[in-house]
UniProtKB/TrEMBL annotation:
InterPro entries: Ig-like_dom, Ig-like_dom_sf, Ig-like_fold, Ig_sub, Ig_sub2, Ig_V-set, Zig-8. It comes from Limulus polyphemus. The gene is LOC106456928. PANTHER family: DEFECTIVE PROBOSCIS EXTENSION RESPONSE 10, ISOFORM A-RELATED, DEFECTIVE PROBOSCIS EXTENSION RESPONSE DPR -RELATED. This is Zwei Ig domain protein zig-8-like isoform X1. Residues 79-166, 169-274 form the Ig-like domain. The lineage of its organism: Eukaryota, Metazoa, Ecdysozoa, Arthropoda, Chelicerata. SMART domains: IG (SM00409), IGc2 (SM00408), IGv (SM00406). SUPFAM superfamilies: Immunoglobulin (SSF48726). It comes from the Eukaryota. Pfam families: Ig_3 (PF13927), V-set (PF07686).
Length: 320
């Protein structure tokens, strides 16, 4: 009985030893396996980050493997630019220019603006590093947008501006600023010969006008005729990108309407043409009006009405 008992005791001892050995082997296997897994995942994900300079995939945040957590902590916050900001910015001379730089995941890094022409650091964060008060980094609307604002733009402000993030290595985007000078010209000038009694249309082309002019005034000699014109019709319309056209239409032109006509837009220097009335001696330069019906006084004298229309068309243009 005793012997039998001892024997079975020995057997269980042997069995438990076996179990412990198996357990140890299993633990070792798990350790090796997870080490391999860890190495594997970090390697592929490091490759991922080196080939993808943009934001890391958000999906990795929820990954539950051992390697994931370490990788997420190190690279999720790597800053990246939003590529959709304008790289070519144009502004009208004297107007305020806004250069956008949107940085995601900025973290503890800073955004600087550098003028490439002379490598002058303009701003670091929102701190100014230039004595010229026209430069400033403003933070409005989008929290990730570091907007370089340049007030009262001058021609010398044209060129490349660098938005730089203080990562290691540094990352940058470049914005090219153009300052446009609007220019007005009247086609057919400087001298336009027109037959007495016919009609004439003067076309003033305002080019390089990225913003529409607030108004376009027309002058006959030194008198402004927008408001008191008895015979003219004036229109203002957008012709192409950065181009606005204003037309002055005069019917049944008489001696009194000869002289100097000037187009004076709000955003460009004035331009003039000289209108000479002929008595039919120079037909080549004439502009005939097929409609020889008598003047409609109500229509042509309604200067208030047309002025209203001009204002409306400008407002319409501006809000488009
Ligand atoms: C990195 O991963 C890309 C695919 O994501 C693969 O084409 C490339 O061969 C890998 N490079 C290395 C060095 O493993
Ligand atoms: C930004 O542009 C770079 C290259 O031009 C591209 O690799 C990256 O994916 C873009 N980033 C975003 C957020 O689209
Ligand atoms: C780079 O990351 C972006 C953002 O997570 C992702 O949309 C894009 O597919 C990735 N590109 C590559 C080549 O992995
Ligand atoms: C910016 O302008 C340059 C030339 O002035 C042109 O080559 C480039 O395509 C423009 N870029 C964009 C995004 O319009
Ligand atoms: C910046 O824009 C101007 C005007 O569009 C162009 O003449 C110039 O070549 C551009 N500069 C660069 C570096 O793209
Ligand atoms: C428009 O501006 C460009 C430079 O910005 C200049 O080369 C061109 O002559 C200008 N055109 C007119 C009609 O003023
Ligand atoms: C028209 O008048 C303006 C100023 O009144 C003058 O500067 C310009 O030279 C004149 N132009 C012509 C063609 O007579």
């Amino acid at each position: 009985m005793l012997e039998a008992q001892e024997y079975s005791h020995l057997q269980t001892k042997k069995l438990s030893l076996l179990a412990i050995r198996r357990l140890l082997r299993l633990i070792l296997r798990i350790a090796i396996f997870s080490t391999l897994l860890l190495l594997g995942t970090t390697r592929t994900q490091n490759n991922d980050t080196s080939t993808n300079t943009s934001m890391p995939d958000k999906r990795s945040l929820t990954e539950e493997d051992n390697g994931g957590e370490y990788w997420v902590a190190e690279t999720y916050n790597f800053p990246a630019f939003d590529n959709n900001t304008a790289k070519n910015v144009s502004t009208q001379l004297g107007q305020t220019a806004f250069l956008h730089c949107i940085v995601e995941n900025l973290g503890d890094k800073t955004v600087s603006w550098i003028r490439r022409k002379d490598f002058h650091v303009l701003t670091v964060g929102t701190d100014k590093y230039i004595s010229d008060d026209r430069f400033q980094t403003v933070r409005t609307g989008n929290d990730n947008d570091w907007v370089l604002q340049i007030k009262f733009t001058q021609l010398k402000d044209q060129g490349i501006y660098e938005c730089q993030v203080s990562t290691d290595p540094k990352i940058s985007v470049f914005v090219n600023l153009s300052v446009l000078v609007a220019e007005a010209t009247i086609s057919g000038g400087p001298k336009i010969i027109v037959e007495k009694g016919s009609s004439i249309e003067l076309t003033c082309v305002i080019s390089n006008s990225s913003d529409p002019p607030k108004f376009v005034f027309w002058y006959h000699n030194n008198r402004m005729i927008n408001y008191d014109s008895t015979r003219g019709d004036i229109s203002v319309e957008k012709a192409a990108a950065k181009t606005v056209i204003s037309k002055l239409y005069i019917r049944d032109i008489g001696e009194a309407e000869s002289g100097n006509y000037t187009c004076g837009p709000s955003n460009a220097g004035p331009t003039s043409v000289s209108v000479v009335i002929s008595n039919g001696e120079n037909p080549a330069a004439m502009q005939h009006d097929g409609n020889s019906a008598p003047l409609n006084g109500v229509q042509t004298r309604a200067s208030l009405l047309w002025n209203l229309l001009l204002s409306l068309s400008l407002i319409n243009y501006v809000t488009r």
